[in-house]
């Protein structure tokens, strides 16, 4: 199956030298294996006209796209993402205390974020009620993305459910 944008055929991106060789030889089975969905969406976003990027630098995506390779690919294009993490995302508080002066790397994290018991020195409540619930905002480190992110954690009215959004 050939990928097209309009009537123009589009070459799909590849990662490794072996993938490049398979694509050059034209073996269609190998071409499909050399490509994944994240790469395809990054490629499609890269093919958008420049006028789109002048209008906005933000991409809103569902939780499937909260992966490091997608977020890093957007950053290379100069775009930022607004998305949602899985409910069990590994998030860590950033350490802001004094340096110890001891040898070794300085402390970076100050414990794992427990979404059922937030540290209110890091998070603050937003004056925004969505679906009768409440929202808290803070900056933490994401293990999956390997970077600091700003998160908004939404809790249902009875606190039985929560969702974690990030940018």
Describe what you observe in this structure.
By secondary structure, this protein is an alpha+beta fold. Helix content is 24%, strand content 28%. The chain is built from five helices and ten strands. The strands form two sheets. Strands 3, 4, 5, 6, 7, 8, 9 and 10 form an eight-stranded mixed sheet that branches. The two termini are 35 Å apart. The mean pLDDT is 84.
Attribute tags:
28% strand, alpha+beta, eight-stranded mixed β-sheet, 167 residues, 5 helices, two-stranded antiparallel ribbon
| Helical amount | 10-25%
Euclidean distance between termini CA atoms? 35 Å
Please identify the structural class as seen in this structure: alpha+beta
Any low-confidence stretches, pLDDT <50, length ≥5? none
> What is the typical, i.e. mean, pLDDT?
84
Structure described in brief:
24% of the residues lie in helices and 28% in strands. It has helices at residues 17-25, 28-33, 37-46, 50-55, 68-76, and strands spanning 4-5, 8-9, 58-60, 80-85, 91-94, 109-112, 124-125, 134-142, 147-155, 162-166.
Write the layout of secondary structure elements.
Blueprint: E1 4-5, E2 8-9, H1 17-25, H2 28-33, H3 37-46, H4 50-55, E3 58-60, H5 68-76, E4 80-85, E5 91-94, E6 109-112, E7 124-125, E8 134-142, E9 147-155, E10 162-166
Parallel strand pairs: 3-4
Antiparallel strand pairs: 1-2, 4-10, 5-6, 5-8, 7-8, 8-9, 9-10
């Amino acid at each position: 199956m050939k990928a097209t944008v309009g009537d123009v055929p589009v070459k799909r991106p590849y990662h490794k030298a072996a993938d490049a060789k398979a694509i050059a030889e034209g073996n269609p089975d190998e071409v499909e294996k050399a490509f994944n969905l994240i790469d395809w969406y990054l490629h499609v976003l890269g093919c958008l006209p420049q006028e789109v990027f002048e209008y906005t630098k933000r991409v809103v995506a569902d939780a499937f796209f909260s992966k490091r390779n997608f977020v890093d690919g957007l950053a290379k294009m100069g775009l930022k993402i607004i998305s949602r993490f899985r409910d069990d995302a590994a998030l860590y508080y950033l350490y802001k205390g004094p340096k110890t002066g001891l040898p070794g790397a300085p402390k970076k994290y100050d414990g794992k974020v427990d979404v059922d018991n937030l540290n209110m020195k890091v998070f603050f409540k937003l004056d925004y009620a969505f679906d009768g619930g409440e929202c808290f905002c803070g900056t933490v480190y994401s293990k999956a993305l390997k970077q600091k992110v700003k998160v908004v954690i939404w809790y249902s009215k009875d606190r039985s459910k929560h969702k974690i959004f990030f940018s």
